[in-house]
Design goal:
Rossmann fold; alpha/beta; six-stranded parallel β-sheet; 15 helices
Length: 426
């Protein structure tokens, strides 16, 4: 079985959980005998080519004489997006991008009749222009590379998936890792919502990462339930021992790791930290990540007079994440709306007990985690305090949590996805 898969990022070049999930799924599909051609806007050359053939859209020349592409350009339109449409980029970073670059998609002349597009592969100010041109390249890739299934991850690639399906006629699967309701609450950007809905309607099958997300797809986008399946994410096992990481601190460490945005609930973590410190001063809190609420959180920590016990690390990735978990005594994910949430699984595989919000998809598959409503700061603080001060409680969650997460394998998720593929084939 050959799958043409469209993503926006692939390790080691990631900005969040999307790239990690794509890698895990592709690796699992390989173990089940599925051949994947994974397309990203820009390939850097250091991606793991052992799990899939990685193809960058920037490397594809397009023949401008081809009538298909002429028709595409006649219908091509885009609008520059504002900061709310740029995943993982803060408002300050957005304006810096505006000042430093007039366009994130450049053109380079190959010959008189061919053209290449130099994608930034990031989440810059001209994001939607990249989305549209990515769809143009996708149609060429679909025509040139034999495949049985098309698989597109999140709204940034849905137009590419639709374009590929139009050319090859093969079944399209769209994978919902997050919706505009997760990112923006009820203040959805209509443009993104329309792209998401068009992708889901054009798809032959919609894969949701949780029942929570599946219900949103059905109830908020009007997609028939029979067309939507749930496949929970997995976690990649650690391939090395982290016991040698030195702490250099006597205090216990409580960690928040994720985008510092409304969706992730960082303000609830800060408020709970103050309540915990009022009972136990032998604790340090770490907020690892970046986002549009970072400066607000720094000011709030200062106002609560806990700057000496609260640390901001900035964005962490790869081995930095593993080291942070190795230093942590408790991991907290107080998300307001979390389609799934891979980071609690990564914490648990590192022997760290976790506190998660009930409003997360991962809560559907985890039993050995403390679960609270994201808005209940008292319950959040009590859960953190209990894991820090009652060894029997934390040891129980560490022991059974590690065992539980070892069964949440990407191979299992990939098996379900392969079965979904098979249902679409003659």
């Amino acid at each position: 079985m050959r799958v043409l898969m469209f993503g926006w990022e692939f390790p080691p070049h990631i900005s969040g959980g999307l790239g990690t999930a794509c890698y895990g799924l592709v690796k699992g599909l390989l173990n089940h005998g599925v051949n994947v051609l994974f397309v990203v806007p820009k390939a850097y050359g250091d991606e793991d080519g052992s799990v899939a053939r990685i193809l960058g859209a920037s490397d594809i020349p397009v023949d401008v004489r081809d009538k298909k592409y002429t028709e595409f350009w006649e219908n091509f339109s885009y609008m520059e997006v504002n900061s709310k449409l740029i995943p993982y980029v803060s408002l300050e970073e957005y304006y810096q991008l505006l000042e430093s670059s007039s366009s994130s998609v450049g053109e380079s002349e190959e010959s008189l009749y061919t053209r290449r597009f130099n994608f930034s592969g990031s989440y810059g100010p001209n994001l939607l222009e990249e989305v549209e041109k990515y769809a143009l390249i996708a149609s060429f890739i679909a025509e040139q590379n034999p495949h049985d299934i098309i698989h597109a991850h999140d709204w940034l690639t849905y137009k590419a998936g639709i374009a590929a399906k139009r050319v090859s006629g093969k079944p399209l699967v769209v994978h919902i890792h997050a919706t505009e309701f997760d990112r923006s609450g009820e203040n959805v950007n209509q443009l993104v919502y329309d792209i998401e809905r068009a992708g889901m309607e054009a798809a032959d099958l919609v894969v949701a990462v949780s029942e929570l997300t599946r219900n949103i797809v059905i109830n908020r986008y009007g997609i028939p339930p029979s067309k939507v399946v749930t496949v929970h994410n997995g976690v990649i096992p650690l391939d090395h021992d982290l016991d040698g990481v030195s702490r250099h601190l006597r205090e216990k460490i409580v960690t928040f790791l994720g985008r510092i945005t409304f969706q992730k609930g960082p303000d609830y973590f800060v408020e709970a930290a103050r309540k915990v410190l009022d009972k136990d001063s032998n604790v340090r809190f770490v907020m690892a990540g970046s986002g549009d609420m970072l400066n607000k959180m720094i000011r709030r920590v200062a106002a609560l007079k806990m700057g000496a016990r609260f640390h901001f690390t900035g964005f962490l990735k790869g081995e930095e994440v593993n080291r942070m978990f190795a230093l942590s005594d408790v991991y907290v994910m107080p998300s307001v709306s979390e389609p799934f949430g891979i980071s609690p699984l990564e914490a648990m595989r590192s022997n760290v007990p976790v506190v998660i919000s009930k409003q997360s998809g991962v809560s559907e598959v985890l039993h050995h985690a403390l679960k609270v409503d994201f808005w209940d700061i008292d319950a959040l603080a009590d859960s953190i305090y209990g894991l820090l001060n009652y060894p029997a409680l934390s040891n129980m969650f560490i022991k059974y949590g590690k065992r539980e997460v070892e069964n949440l394998k990407w191979d299992n998720a990939a098996h379900k996805v392969k079965e979904a593929y098979s249902s679409l084939l003659p």
